[in-house]
Amino acid sequence: MQKFKLFINNEWVDSSDKKTFQSMNPSKNEPIAELSMANEADVDRAVKVARKTFDSGVWSELDGDQRAEYMMKAAQIMRKRLKELARWEAMDVGKPIYEAENVDIPYSIRAMEYFANQAREIQGEVIPLPGNYAFDWVSYEPYGVVATITPWNFPLHIATRCICPAIATGNTVVAKPSSLAPITPTILGEIFLEAGLPAGVVNIINGPGNTTGEALASHPDVNMISFTGSLQIGRRLMELSAKSPIIKKVILELGGKGPFIAEPDCEIDAAVNSLIVGFCLMQGEVCCASTRLFLHEDIYDVFMEKLVRRVKSLKLGDIMDPSTQMGSLISKEQLEKVDGYVKGAIKEGAKLVCGGERYTEPPCDRGFYYKPTILENVKNTMKCAREEIFGPVLVVMKYKNLDDAIAMANDNQYALGATFWSENPKKLFYAGRKLDAGIVWLNTNVMSKIEAPYGGNKNSGLGREDGRIGLKEYLKVKNNVLFIGKEYDNFYKFKD
Ligand code: NAP
Fold first, then answer.
1. Which residues of 118-144 are buried (b: 16+ CB within 10 A; e: fewer)?
2. Residues 6 or more apart from 153 whose CB is under 8 A from it?
């Protein structure tokens, strides 16, 4: 079994107490790698290295072009290793190889390239002040040490989405991937080493959130936490930041409960297809998944017939088979949680249209596969319509009036992605304005590109990743004021 150590100061090291843990392939329920588990002393070592490296200026004082060159080299190496990275990603998460090869790894390479180029052109601003007595300009500076704490559903994509803007802007990083799928973010260490990044710029440590993650998030030398994960842990990290001797900058990318509204004038075939990607991609373990369908009564029957027929035809299977469309959930616990929500919904009065059970056809019998599931007769007040299930489960609600549908869509603690389908441009614009979400998809779905900001409102998080807006999250703002008037100020009217 392949072993991965901790990556600290450009060296691969054991944890100080030599403890390790295994990462599993959930589609077979078997271990695939052994990783060193960082304890508090190891976390302290990694953060101190990142601090010293930042303060030394070997990275933070580099020209943006030079930082970009290192990152472009890293992107080239990733491209060469694309197939290998995709295999690890598929196995570690239980996702189809087709998705890993076509979504996860290409997106991660793009993040490395995009943010490399952004490093070259971080711009400030000049602010005109009344009276022509001062020249006022805004400049941007790195925070220092950034802790990136990331989840298991898109391990490399989300790790790069956080690490790349952090280093492009001159910060140093201590990254902690999820211990449920840590392999590809750990391989980034090999990639940065080969690309020649100075020692200590990126450090990668592994271990469980409640020990390794807590030690990292509460370390006084960490200036910023970039977190993607659940609401519960997001709240905890805000608490840790608040208790820190010097409060930390925190950005949070949390959960979702994405609404999908289909108006009677929508292109039904296309809307159905886009909805299925919305709740079945990555087995529904996606923060911006479309999991609440608000379907207009006039198209209800025809839409549902196509939806159910197509969902039933999705191929669950061996994740390494390129024709497989859905893989395994991440763990037995996740499978039980998803099934619990479905059983609970049926008890509350929902009607099971399809799915609702584990999929056990060989070779999937050892893994944690769950059939894509649709529940009808759901009320927006039911638990299955209010909470994030994080599995391939869609709840369906019928509506008559567009404003009622929008009100129901907005009536949730989460506000990450929202989707609306219609062929009427006025309605598209209206819904775009009224839906409370960080991302509104109009006649498309779950499209997320590194060039555009990504993130949510309410309990979906704070701040944004990606794009120029995301890049700025990793920079402190400094306002500079230079006096250029004729006479210096003498507010107290001193005479001598
Ligand atoms: P999670 O349980 O919150 O874990 C996320 C990360 O935090 C993992 O690395 C985890 O480590 C770590 N962690 C756990 N407890 C911690 C603590 N006390 N202190 C510091 N770190 C701690 O979330 P998840 O189950 O991995 O991911 C699913 C959630 O992420 C869903 O809610 C999903 O919607 C959200 N998500 C959001 C986005 C977005 O962009 N908005 C994208 C993807 C996922 P261990 O796993 O090693 O314990």
1. bbeebeeeeeeeeeeebeeeeebebbb
2. 93, 181, 282, 285, 286, 287, 330
Distance CA 484, CA 161 (A): 41
What pLDDT, on a 0 to 100 scale, did the predictor assign at position 296?
98
Quick one: pLDDT at residue 334?
98
Could you say which DSSP state residue 326 is in?
A: B
The atom number, within ligand 1, closest to the CA of 151 reads: 26
Closest CA to 70 of 198, 166, 251, 169: 198
Identify the active-site residue in 99, 253, 263, 388. Answer: 253
Rounded-to-integer distance, Cα 352 and Cα 309, Å? 14
Ligand 1 centroid – CA 346 distance (Å): 28
Contact yes or no for 149/179 (Cβ under 8 A): no
Burial class (CB in 10 A: 0-12, 13-18, 19+), 29: middle
CA distance 396 to 293: 5
Amino acid at residue number 450: I
Amino acid code (one letter) for 86:
A
For residues 236, 242, 246, 251, the Cα torsion angle rounded to the nearest 10 degrees is 60
Q: Does any ligand 1 atom lie closer than 6 A to the CB of residue 94?
A: no
Q: Which of 446, 443, 409 lies closest to 428, judged by CA?
A: 443
Dump pLDDT digits (tens) for 364-420. Answer: 999 999 999 999 999 999 999 999 999 999 999 999 999 999 999 999 999 999 999
Residue 147 β-bridge partners: 174, 225
Helix (H, G, I), strand (E, B) or coil at 230: coil
Residue 25, H or E segment? strand 20-25
Question: Tokens for 21?
Answer: 């843990």
Judge if the beta carbon of residue 256 lies within 6 A of ligand 1: yes
Q: Which of 56, 117, 63 is nearest to 471 (CA)?
A: 117
Please write the tens of the pLDDT for every residue from 5-22. Answer: 999 999 999 999 999 999
Residue ranges in the chain whose pLDDT is less than 50: none
Contact 356, 342 (CB under 8 A): yes
Task: Look up the pTM and report it.
Answer: 0.97
For residue 435, the CA-to-ligand 1 centroid distance in Å is: 26
CA 151 to ligand 1 center in whole angstroms: 4
Ligand 1 atom closest to Cα of 456?
41
Whose CA is closest to atom 10 on ligand 1?
Answer: 209
- Residue 156 CA, chain-centre distance (Å), reads 10
| 221 Cβ neighbours under 8 A, 6+ residues apart | 47, 48, 50, 51, 145
Between CA 2 and CA 4 the distance in angstroms is: 7
Burial environment of residue 20 by CB neighbours within 10 A (0 to 12, 13 to 18, 19 or more): middle
